[in-house]
Amino acid sequence: MRAMDTAFAPSPAPSSRSPAPSGAALHILEHVFGYAAFRGEQQAIVEHVAAGGDALVLMPTGGGKSLCFQIPALLREGTAIVVSPLIALMQDQVSALVEAGVGAAFLNSSQDMDTARAVERALYAGELDLLYVAPERLMTPRFLDQLDHLRDTGRLALFAIDEAHCVSQWGHDFRPEYLQLSILPERYPSIPRIALTATADRQTREEIAQRLNLQHARRFVSSFDRPNIRYTIVDKDDPRRQLLHFIREECASEAGIVYCLSRRKVEETAAWLQEQGLKALPYHAGMTQETRAEHQTRFLREDGLIMVATIAFGMGIDKPDVRFVAHLDLPRSIEGYYQETGRAGRDGLPAQAWMAWGAQDVVQQRRMIDESEAGEEFKRLARNRLDVLVGLVEATTCRRQHLLAYFGEDAGPCGNCDNCLHPPQTWDATEAARKALSCVYRTGQRYGAGHLIDVLRGEPTDKVIERGHQDITTFGIGSDLDEKRWRTIFRQLVAREFIAVDHERYNALRLTDAARPLLRGEAEFHLRLEREKSRSRSKRRSAAPLDIPGGIPTTLFDRLRAWRVATAKERNVPAYVVFQDATLREIAIARPQSLAELAGISGIGDRKLEAYGEAILGIVAETT
């Protein structure tokens, strides 16, 4: 490797850079990235894009999305342009690519002019396989002129649009700059594009396709399941103490993220955790850019650090060894919850998603929606998404089933969530559910839950009188239950798909085919029984996430991690860029005795084998 700025390095290019058969893709996968086989639809995506096709890819966090554009970039002639929303994500992915021997660089506002010019010279010299840019940079006249030059000289390989859900105006991570990316197919119609995201329901998928002009792109939708994550949701009862108990009992000395709704709560929670002897840092948009950058860098490079943050932190964080994500407040939506919890266990090893919630969280979220300056349509969708999330936290059956059902995926009980492991107490709400369904039907399937509850409880509101609903048979038949209980019943009827929400008719509720057996008395309906407030604490302790099986002591794993920290510090990169925990764990189990044996470990490509192989074998030999 020639001496040059560490932001990029020339690639040991494969013999052919034209679209190639699967053998070439597999060769790059093994020898550059160190993996023996593709997972899921990775190979189909790689071959489709390498051959010049457009693609819309939905794949869970940790599922290997980056390889879906990185390998086609190495197979096609020229430089791939990767649109990425965050500086930290660019830097991490470029560092990892450089470690693997790939010619990669980024252009963003963190660089001085000399560094940026050096990257541009490398681009013109054909030394870059991938160049990461923010959407704002890509749309500048100067950069578009550079892209025109690459196109005209046949050296523009492809466009990859990462975190593509940022284009959704209804989403939780909307970035208006992403809307301008629709210019790409108009200006560069012959250049393939791949848009990737880990978080998108059906509505968001259609919006991505429309706004990025990818209506005719081939779609690849992988399973949203992350079986290595254990989902646990508890009722709030001294939430700070509950959080501390969870961390100490389940994830001691491990890296994690704690999400809070407000900046003040972030600061107070981080300070309190520090007082309890834990390494914790705050992160929110109210801090200076320098402080945020410092805290993020520490989180990425130090082991066992806890980041307490608002949702301003996390998108694009590539740290694979986050062992837990905790929520001290209810997220805004299922999408937000899925994406935030998905930052745990990206390496595929066991991880935890823990949340404490209370009814006041729902009240606060509703107030925030109602008081926002958004349009009524946005508010209706936000309220519905919040209701779906509340349906998840109130669920008595498998959490994972509910989560996956939202994304249109069927699944059986997972055996790895709190409801599966410790089934909650329930009460028989069958009769109440039948009353609710009957009320939906008797009112013409044209109204939302608020009006239906008024009818069921016999409330003579102006709307009830105006519609004549005080005269129907379901008026007042549910007066024995309060509004809170009825809202829970309706949320669960929606969550379990007995009722559907009609977004085109102002969130009106309508019966589904699944409602018939319940209405006929052929099915039962049970709801979670609210727990009594208690100060008692369970003493359940799960197995350590990184236990080494087969009776092998963890000494070797610990020594490998210590070596990795020192090596990463010397190279000025995050530790996981050198090797992920999963790779070190496999080394500790296999105890390779030669470079050939070490080459068979997942995550060790040719470049890393050459750079680190002898050092690793030395540590293995020294550790008994």
TrEMBL record:
A GO cellular-component term linked to this record: replisome
Catalytic reactions of this protein: Couples ATP hydrolysis with the unwinding of duplex DNA by translocating in the 3'-5' direction
Domain spans labelled Helicase ATP-binding: 46-218
Enzyme class, UniProt record, top EC level: isomerase
Domain HRDC: 550-624
Gene3D superfamilies: HRDC domain, P-loop containing nucleotide triphosphate hydrolases, Winged helix-like DNA-binding domain superfamily/Winged helix DNA-binding domain
An example molecular function term from Gene Ontology annotations: ATP binding
Pfam hit, one: DEAD
Entries under PROSITE patterns matching the protein: HELICASE_ATP_BIND_1 (PS51192), HELICASE_CTER (PS51194), HRDC (PS50967)
Protein biosynthesis recorded as keyword: no
CDD domains: DEXHc_RecQ (cd17920), SF2_C_RecQ (cd18794)
Known cofactor(s): Zn(2+); Mg(2+)
Occurrences of domain Helicase C-terminal (ranges): 239-389
SUPFAM superfamilies registered for this protein in UniProt: HRDC-like, P-loop containing nucleoside triphosphate hydrolases
Example GO BP: DNA repair
Signal peptide range: none
Region (Disordered): 1-21
Keywords, comma-separated and alphabetical: ATP-binding, DNA damage, DNA recombination, DNA repair, DNA-binding, Helicase, Hydrolase, Isomerase, Metal-binding, Nucleotide-binding, Zinc
Known EC number: 5.6.2.4
Family stated for the protein in its record: Belongs to the helicase family. RecQ subfamily.
Protein's UniProt name: DNA helicase RecQ
Record organism: Thauera linaloolentis (strain DSM 12138 / JCM 21573 / CCUG 41526 / CIP 105981 / IAM 15112 / NBRC 102519 / 47Lol)
